[in-house]
């Protein structure tokens, strides 16, 4: 392409939000240019869920290998060849990039893709500049720039890596200070603990995974401790980091008492910020909100009439499926001016730690605050498939509205929790009464049977007697 280009729609960033936006805009007939700083796929493909899931698979396989002897299969101790594992992760990332980035569809729809374009920026409301010397004049712009990790505001923070550095190590670190126990921190801690690293997980708040149901936080902390992770909730305040021969030292204080912790590697995952630094949003009249994310309305329109935003950069639910839906919606509104809105009927969230955890709907505390509910909890230890597979740890908590009998929430810890949550999500989205759910003869023996048992439990609590009418 030439260095000067005109477009109906310019999409900035080619993560899940940008890919979806560009495809939709082009399919609606707009001349669309997709400009991205690095490779198509964005953070999601290169540093987020894809490598995480590949590493989690390695951790799972190691764990499975330890169980082989119980089934009479003796292969000796597993030995980890870390460079080969990293090679496999790179292979997976490349395979996903080749097969799963909708390149054929984008090409067929006529999207002009500009990869490795550096940081694109507005020079005026309708002009975008990127490397090397690209100048785009666009009628509409969709900002899909994603996010970046928050940096600890303390001396020595440059000694602390992000999740990106955690996946880039060339040998298994002997020890790790993992700072922040949200979804990312829990994931990094879980993977490295399984690979043999001595992990200390520092959470400033009173519990890990603070956005999960309290029982999920508690059981996950117990499981992490059982796996050898030193979990420190409410540990105090970090004062500084220092370089030491063995790696890095963290100095922190609680109630006036100063303590230190040392490890070969320190990684922080203390929150995710909008990646807007280089965009020069002011030149386009695009406002950010008090939290620094691009301010959008329900139609994903920013404060500038012709600029839309989608995905993590807007700071709402920061997940791939939401980024994809956002991109579609923003492009629809940008091209057609329809003013369409989208409100997902359910938002399943889950993570690939060991054990997995997942949620759909409000926590028990939130649900009880808002209405009368019954809460039914079943344990994996009482369900046939987890017993067969030797995976008895975990629970499934189902929350049902007492008045309508509708399934409104489910919280799960245990093997395949994320998959089980998808079934619960469909029931929640359908506002399905629990007596209808229990009529579904779920396949046996499956992990989803734990959800079936929880539904039966809830129905009993509600006094539903004639299940089979
Ligand atoms: C460790 C980790 C694990 C995760 N696991 C999961 C998971 O299991 N499931 C899930 O659903 N979500 C997961 N997420 C969240 C998920 O990755 C994000 O919600 C998703 O990537 C957001 O997509 P996006 O398109 O908004 O942004 P991104 O994927 O971040 O893509 C944005 C793109 O824009 C580019 N860009 C930024 N600024 C500019 C600019 N000025 N000019 C040009 N290009 C620019 C960036 O380089 C990037 O390529 C995880 C996140 C992390 C960090
Ligand atoms: N499997 C998944 O779906 C998945 C995985 C990773 C990330 N994500 C997405 O990325 C988003 C960001 O995740 P995240 O984990 O990076 O951030 P987060 O905001 O979810 O969690 C950050 C954690 O760090 C803690 N913290 C903050 N300051 C601290 C300090 N100084 N010392 C110690 N702890 C501190 C917070 O209390 C919080 O628990 C998530 O909300 C999620 O949407 C999803």
TrEMBL record:
Q: What does the Swiss-Prot or TrEMBL cofactor note state?
A: Binds 1 FAD per subunit.
Q: Which UniProt keywords apply?
A: FAD, Flavoprotein, NAD, Nucleotide-binding
Residues bound to FAD:
312
Q: Which co-factor is required?
A: FAD
Against Gene3D superfamilies, the record matches this protein to: 3.30.390.30, FAD/NAD(P)-binding domain
Q: Which InterPro entries match?
A: FAD/NAD-bd_sf (IPR036188), FAD/NAD-binding_dom (IPR023753), FAD/NAD-linked_Rdtase_dimer_sf (IPR016156), Pyr_nuc-diS_OxRdtase (IPR001100), Pyr_nucl-diS_OxRdtase_dimer (IPR004099)
Note one Pfam family from the annotation.
Answer: Pyr_redox_2
Q: Name one GO molecular function term.
A: NAD(P)H dehydrogenase (quinone) activity
- UniProt: NAD(+) binding residues: 203, 271
Family per similarity comment = Belongs to the class-I pyridine nucleotide-disulfide oxidoreductase family.
Q: Per its record, how is this protein called by name?
A: Dihydrolipoamide dehydrogenase/glutathione reductase (NADPH)
Species this protein is from: Paractinoplanes atraurantiacus
């Amino acid at each position: 392409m030439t260095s000067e280009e005109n477009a109906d729609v310019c999409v900035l960033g080619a993560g899940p939000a940008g890919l979806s936006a560009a495809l939709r805009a082009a399919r609606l007939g707009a001349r669309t240019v997709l400009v991205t700083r690095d490779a198509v796929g964005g953070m999601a493909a290169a540093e987020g869920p894809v490598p995480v899931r590949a590493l989690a698979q390695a951790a799972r396989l190691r764990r499975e290998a330890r169980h082989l002897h119980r089934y009479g299969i003796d292969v000796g101790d597993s030995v980890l060849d870390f460079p080969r594992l990293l090679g496999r992760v790179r292979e997976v990332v490349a395979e996903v990039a080749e097969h799963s980035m909708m390149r054929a569809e984008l090409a067929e729809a006529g999207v002009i893709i500009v990869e490795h374009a550096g940081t694109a920026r507005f020079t005026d409301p309708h002009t975008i500049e990127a490397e090397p010397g690209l100048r785009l004049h666009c009628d509409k712009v969709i900002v899909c720039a994603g996010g970046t990790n928050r940096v600890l505001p303390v001396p020595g923070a440059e000694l602390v890596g992000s999740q990106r550095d955690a996946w880039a190590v060339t040998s298994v670190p002997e020890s790790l200070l993992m700072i922040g126990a949200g979804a990312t921190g829990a994931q990094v801690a879980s993977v490295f603990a399984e690979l043999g690293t001595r992990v200390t997980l520092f959470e400033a708040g009173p519990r890990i995974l603070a956005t999960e149901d309290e029982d999920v936080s508690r059981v996950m902390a117990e499981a992490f401790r059982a796996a050898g992770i030193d979990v420190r909730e409410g540990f105090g305040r970090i004062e500084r980091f220092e370089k030491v021969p063995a790696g890095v030292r963290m100095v922190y204080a609680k109630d006036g008492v100063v303590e230190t912790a040392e490890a070969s590697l320190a990684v922080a995952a203390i929150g995710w910020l909008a990646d807007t630094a280089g965009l020069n949003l002011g030149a386009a009249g695009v406002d950010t909100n008090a939290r620094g994310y691009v301010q959008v309305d329900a139609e994903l329109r920013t404060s500038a009439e012709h600029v839309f935003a989608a995905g993590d950069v807007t700071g709402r639910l920061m997940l791939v499926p939401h980024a994809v839906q956002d991109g579609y919606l923003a492009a629809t509104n940008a091209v057609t001016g329809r003013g369409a809105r989208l409100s997902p009927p359910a938002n399943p969230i889950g993570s690939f730690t060991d054990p997995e955890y997942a949620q759909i709907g409000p926590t028990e505390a939130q649900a009880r605050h808002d209405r009368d509910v019954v809460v039914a909890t079943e344990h994996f230890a009482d369900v046939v498939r987890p017993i067969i597979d030797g995976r008895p740890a975990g629970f499934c908590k189902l929350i049902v509205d007492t008045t309508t009998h509708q399934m409104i929430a489910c919280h799960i810890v245990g093997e395949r929790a994320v998959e089980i949550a998808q079934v619960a999500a469909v029931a929640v989205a359908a506002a399905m009464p629990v007596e209808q759910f229990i009529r579904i003869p779920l396949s046996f023996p499956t992990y989803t049977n734990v959800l079936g048992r929880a539904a039966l439990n809830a129905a009993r609590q509600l006094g539903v007697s004639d299940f089979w009418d």
